[in-house]
Predict the 3D structure of the following.
Amino acid sequence: MKFPFGFCALSLVLLAQCGSGESTPPPAPTPQPPFAGTLRSVSPFPFGGAVSAGLLRSRPAYGQVAAREYSSITAENAMKMGALHPSPTTYNWTDADFVVDFARLNNARVHGHTLNWYTSLPAWVTNFSGDSTAWENLLRDHITTVVKHFRGKVASWDVVNEAFEDTGVLRNSIWVQHLGPDYIARAFQYANAADPAARLFYNDYGHEYSAAKRNAIFALVTSLRNRGIPIHGVGMQFHTSSNISDAQLASTIAQAGQTGLLVHISELDISMNPSLAPAATFTAALAAAQKVKYKAVTAAFKALPAAQRFGITTWNVADADTWRRGNCSCPEWPLPFDDNYQRKPAYDGIVEALQ
Ligand code: XIL
């Protein structure tokens, strides 16, 4: 019994009875081999992650992914002043040294974060009373001691972190209050004196959503460089989200390149729950949208002149580890690895842009 083609196509039940040779099936798609590389193996610039010393010690999958994928390592918290310098006369190097050793063992560069910040300060600093000379000594001694301790092991530093408000005005931090706005320049000079080989960065967030802030930051770094202050790069954290357009992300990265300095996307994570919905779930559609964002950021970064590409660093390894869940008290999946340390579509987006 013969049936017209249309009937064959519509009737699965009767399909077996259709005569052969009446239609040519489309060729089967060539199966794509699974990606055999890693971020560090395919990236033409350092690709890194921030890591927690505690998770490196306690969770084998965490260290395995970090070792396999990253050619650059940042300590998520271990090098902040509050962690490193618990009293005026004591330093606690244990966690920071552990992270540095992990990176050396795995042949990864170490980026230091951060010598100066308005927060994550030890109580003795927040409570410190002294004149401007005493504050200057405190700033200089901390930077000098830390940079010297890691000299030859830490390639680069976020010297000053988050000095600006989103409006583009300088934050009224304890450093500004006690030392005036030019403490920033002196912090770079102290770091440079302690390790002339280290690459020195000004690091901040919000470039992609506040024109006032990014213009103020790019003006500051340009003016520091023009004054001969030893600054080599600009770090853009990019704790960003699905509601920032690809074009906006790309033009921000290109504008950073206009400074002529090294550019570091230093703390990348991409929120897929920007409205902080308490019952949100990570759907396939969100995963696909996140892939597009990661690909857009990576492609825009790759488009910078090679000599300015300091690298991309994600802020932690997997969704299980992200600070953003704690920060928003909401469901979040901002990283390229899922809660089980498996690669997400976001990972494929990065790879597609890198290859
Ligand atoms: C965050 C860490 O991820 C958290 O674990 C910690 O509790 C607070 O700091 N900008 C920065 C990073 O420069 O140091 C911050 O890291 C995230 C925002």
The radius of gyration is 24 Å. The first helix runs from residue 5 to 10. The first strand starts at residue 47 and ends at 51. The CA atoms of residues 157 and 230 lie 12 Å apart.
